[in-house]
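To illustrate this point, we now present one chain and its tokenised fold:
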Amino acid sequence: MTTSFRFGIATASVLALTLSTGAAHARETSKSCHQKFTTARTAGTLNGQSYKDFKTAQCGDVAAPETRAAEPAAPAAASPVAAPAAPKASAPAAAPVSTNATLPDAVSPKYSKEAAGKARLHTCLDQYNANKATNANGGLRWIQRGGGYYSVCNARLKG
């Protein structure tokens, strides 16, 4: 019985998500259509059409050109995404070299009974706290956008 309830909740969640994104798209389409209508009314090219008539005549085909325009843009966007992938791979290797923070060379033996990730974490944390007293963290905070002390230290201890 719990499984069917979970499936019901999951189905309802997926349905709500689908409808909310569809509503957002419809809102954006409606806004752009209304802007076209306002522009046409200002230019005097409506010839007595109401917004409803204008929308069915002009905005009913809006979704098709957007879809066609999005398809050619996707392959063009795919090639720039592939090119920056190589520099991102070299960036983490350069990060430990560019910092002047004092980093541990190996995992501390007092954490040898812990899992590898926890041992690295505690070793880095001990060194970070020791560095705070002597201001040797190289301007890095423990966690920060773009890689903080923990990120640099963990990468160094891993490899």
